[in-house]
């Protein structure tokens, strides 16, 4: 390995360390806060707040248009690119905000039959403007792999927002306890990002430069918009067919799994895209890093999935007896997350090598298949939506995995073997989790089980990886 490769590897490892540790610690605290908030709020208020945030994620994907992704992926970036991306994003955020103030918020409030959603959406629009004036600063930090700063911005902000959410829930602010912290988080990130990597353009950008970025970003943005549509579609389906209380139960199950899983996948994805972008013309290196990241992700995230599956009933009933209805959903989401911890890496890979169209096609398939599956499942029961996730998502993900296999120029069998190397370490992690579960210890034993599961899964994966390298 050359000195340049060693330096790059060390930089990537350091980035994973900063991003991984920061995200995991912050998300553990956030998960605890989510549990406290779920206990303080009624099921109805928890569901309404989560539904409002689902609308926000879709609106945000419209305003950013993946221009930040385009800035990170581009080999050479100049100030004209930054200026053009900045002003176009701000203009788009202003237009979306105006539309929400004139009729959008009122329309969504009427659609879901919940008057509070209107006011919450109007306040949330402020976070769209804040997001649009900071994404250039974030893109610059990502290009430089300065993930220590980004970890401080994201993880530190999440911690403060989570604690604020607990305070507001205990003070009786209802669904606003989920909304206000999101606005505050964007304000805090705006201040810190502009301090760490200041960027306020001097002069306007050009439409020519904007079009060049949009040439890449429009497909990446379309993918992200479609992603947010299908990933949030289950909330809208449940809100349509079931009561606000049942929406709250569903939201609790989903967030209980997504918060800890999201901590690890966010940390991995945050580092993987700029890493893959640097290696986009080096196929062998790209393979090595892709499979390495994918298997470490499966070993770490999978260990948490095992714990959530086994201890689902203990966790749910300790928070509120009504949440016993969420147990089957928690277990189904935990199984689906075994696929979701690896599949998000592939869009990063496709964007990095300049093939955002493939992401767009995949997201389009998901939009056509998954919401329809959720609607069909909802006709049977609330758990039917979970079954739609359990069956539908792995099937559509096969399309995404086939794209990755072709980009990495590998036979299907070799690709399958390489991406599932951590399956054995993960299966070993089941043993200590089941042992602790059958001891019938208090609910705090979940923490012990999670630590043991992570140690066994990650540790055995490290051991097998070292042994494999020694024999080749």
What value does the Rg take, in angstroms?
A: 22 Å
Strand content: under 5%
Q: Low-confidence spans: pLDDT under 50, at least 5 residues?
A: none
Structural class: mainly alpha
Q: In total, how many beta strands?
A: 0
Count structural domains: 1
Distance between the termini: 16 Å
Report the biggest beta sheet as strand number plus sense, adding barrel if it closes. Answer: none
Question: What is this entry, summarized?
Answer:
With 472 residues, the chain is an all-alpha fold. 85% of the residues lie in helices and 0% in strands. The longest helix has 38 residues, at 3-40.
Give an account of the 3D structure.
The model has no long low-confidence stretch (mean pLDDT 81). The chain has 472 residues and is an all-alpha fold.
Structural features:
472 residues; mainly alpha; 19 helices; 85% helix; 0% strand
Secondary structure layout:
Blueprint: H1 3-40, H2 43-64, H3 67-73, H4 79-112, H5 116-132, H6 135-143, H7 147-170, H8 176-196, H9 207-241, H10 244-278, H11 283-310, H12 312-319, H13 327-340, H14 345-352, H15 356-378, H16 382-407, H17 412-419, H18 423-438, H19 445-471
Helix pairs in contact: 1-7, 1-10, 2-4, 2-5, 2-8, 2-9, 2-10, 3-6, 3-9, 4-5, 4-9, 5-8, 7-8, 9-15, 10-11, 10-13, 10-14, 11-13, 11-18, 11-19, 13-16, 14-16, 15-16, 18-19
């Amino acid at each position: 390995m050359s000195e340049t490769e060693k330096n790059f590897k060390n930089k990537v490892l350091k980035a994973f360390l900063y991003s991984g540790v920061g995200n995991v610690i912050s998300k553990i605290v956030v998960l605890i806060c989510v549990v406290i908030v779920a206990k303080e709020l009624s099921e109805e208020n928890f569901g309404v707040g989560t539904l409002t945030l689902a609308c926000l994620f879709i609106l945000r994907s419209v305003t950013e248009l993946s221009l930040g992704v385009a800035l990170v992926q581009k080999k050479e970036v100049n100030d004209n690119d930054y200026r053009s991306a900045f002003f176009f994003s701000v203009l788009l955020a202003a237009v979306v905000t105006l539309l929400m103030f004139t009729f959008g918020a009122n329309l969504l409030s009427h659609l879901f039959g919940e008057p509070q959603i209107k006011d919450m959406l109007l306040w949330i629009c402020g976070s769209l403007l804040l997001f649009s004036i900071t994404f250039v600063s974030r893109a610059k930090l990502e290009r430089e792999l300065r993930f220590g700063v980004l970890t401080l911005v994201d993880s530190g902000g999440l911690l403060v927002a989570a604690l604020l959410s607990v305070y507001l829930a205990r003070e009786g602010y209802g669904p606003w306890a989920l909304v206000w912290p999101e606005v505050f988080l964007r304000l805090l990130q705006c201040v810190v990002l502009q301090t760490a990597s200041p960027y306020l353009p001097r002069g306007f950008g050009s439409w020519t430069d904007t079009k060049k970025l949009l040439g890449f970003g429009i497909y990446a943005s379309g993918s992200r918009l479609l992603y947010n549509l299908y990933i949030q579609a289950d909330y809208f389906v449940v809100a349509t067919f079931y009561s606000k209380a049942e929406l709250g139960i569903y939201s609790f199950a989903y967030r209980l799994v997504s918060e800890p899983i999201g901590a690890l996948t966010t940390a991995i994805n945050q580092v993987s895209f700029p890493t893959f972008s640097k290696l986009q013309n080096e196929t062998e290196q790209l393979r090595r890093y892709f499979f390495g990241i994918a298997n470490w992700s499966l070993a770490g995230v999978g260990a948490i999935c095992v714990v959530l599956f086994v201890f689902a009933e203990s966790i749910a009933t300790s928070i509120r007896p009504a949440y016993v209805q969420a147990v089957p959903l928690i277990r189904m989401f935990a199984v689906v997350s075994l696929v979701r911890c690896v599949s998000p890496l592939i869009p990063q890979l496709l964007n990095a090598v300049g093939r955002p169209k493939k992401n767009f096609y995949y997201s389009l398939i998901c939009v056509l298949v998954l919401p329809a599956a959720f609607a069909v499942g909802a006709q049977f029961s609330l758990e039917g939506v979970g079954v739609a996730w359990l069956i539908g998502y792995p099937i559509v993900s096969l399309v995404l995995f086939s794209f990755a296999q072709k980009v990495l120029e590998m036979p299907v069998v070799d690709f399958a073997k390489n991406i599932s190397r951590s399956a054995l370490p993960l299966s070993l992690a089941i043993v200590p989790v089941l042992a602790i579960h059958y001891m019938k210890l208090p609910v705090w034993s979940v923490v012990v089980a999670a630590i043991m599961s992570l140690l066994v899964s990650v540790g055995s994966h490290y051991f097998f990886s070292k042994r494999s390298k020694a024999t080749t």
